[in-house]
Amino acid sequence: MKLKYSLLVVALTSLSAHADVNISGFASVNAGKVLNGTGVPQYGVEPTFLADYPIVSAYTEDFSFKPESLIGLQVSAELGEGLSVTGQVVARGADDYNAEFEWAYISYELNDSWTVQAGKKRLPLFYYSDFYDVGYAYVWMRPPADNYTWQIFNYEGINFLYNGSIGDWSMTANIYAGKEDDPNNKLLSDFFFQKPTREIWEDIFGGVATFSKDWLEIRVTHMQYTNRRFIDGEPSMWDGKDSRDGKFYGLAANADFGNFFILSEFNRLDLGGNLDTYMLSAGYRFGDVTPYVMFSDFSQDGDGDTEKHNTKAVGVRWDFHPSAAFKVQYDKVEDESFDLAVAGDSEAITFGVDVVF
């Protein structure tokens, strides 16, 4: 795998003499700590605020810059006649700043409306999935963890992008298919099971459509897949089977009235039982300063093993520079799970600077 990514870097570099190459980047320098928390003593979890599930960005009572700080670089090369290649590498504090490729794909414009892409991309489950790492692109410190909980967030495959309109509505769409095989999934291995866990999502097939007009934007999405898992080398079993099928549904609706805005997202995963998440947020722009509030919730059905937690957050964003924003946010998490407590109750303060370049 590392050889493949190294070859991609060499290829992108060698293209500079034959193509229009663009290099851009983003970075976040964030810090914070838990102000108060219960932890989960029965599992040896100290007071913890789990800010980001997939990469296990966790704050404790010790002040730290490490959990959410990151830097990313994106290289894209236009080869002419509709063909381009893109690579994005991200180094995260939560991974000891080991750089990994998040994107590595080629694109070809079929016509004015359709583009086909193939390679490694971010799985477009959620509204903020495609630019999740670019903190400058959204108002909060991070998209709410109760919504963005999934252990798989990339895939390798093919997708078709559409850009057009329906009447007075602008429309974009994405149809995709592929798989992801993570030999040592960080969330499952390091946090939930604390054993080496291989997570496989195969036969992924999904679609996304976004409609926008004036002050309103609506996004709908659906995906289905087959899940297989190996914990410490042993296959997980569900009702006597070594695989299970999942279906994901999502709806996001955002209203922007100039200074005042409302953001929302509702998701359901049918995986032998319903797992529901939602987020509601609102804010007001006072020039370069934007205070906001946010509430998110996670609820999973079960027979006595229900997982349920929610987060209330309040914060402010200050765009002190055309390419940089300072943010500070207070989060209060209530973990109401039974036997499946994630990280317990917590109150945390985080702040940082997001930049693009």
From TrEMBL:
Signal peptide start and end residues: 1-19
Which GO terms of the molecular function aspect are on file? porin activity
Start and end residues of each Porin domain: 7-353
Source domain of life: Bacteria
Q: Which UniProt keywords apply?
A: Plasmid, Signal
- One GO CC annotation: membrane
- Hydrolase in keyword set: no
Q: Which InterPro entries match?
A: Gram_neg_porin_domain, Porin_dom_sf
Q: What is this protein called?
A: Porin
What is the species of this protein?
Pseudoalteromonas xiamenensis
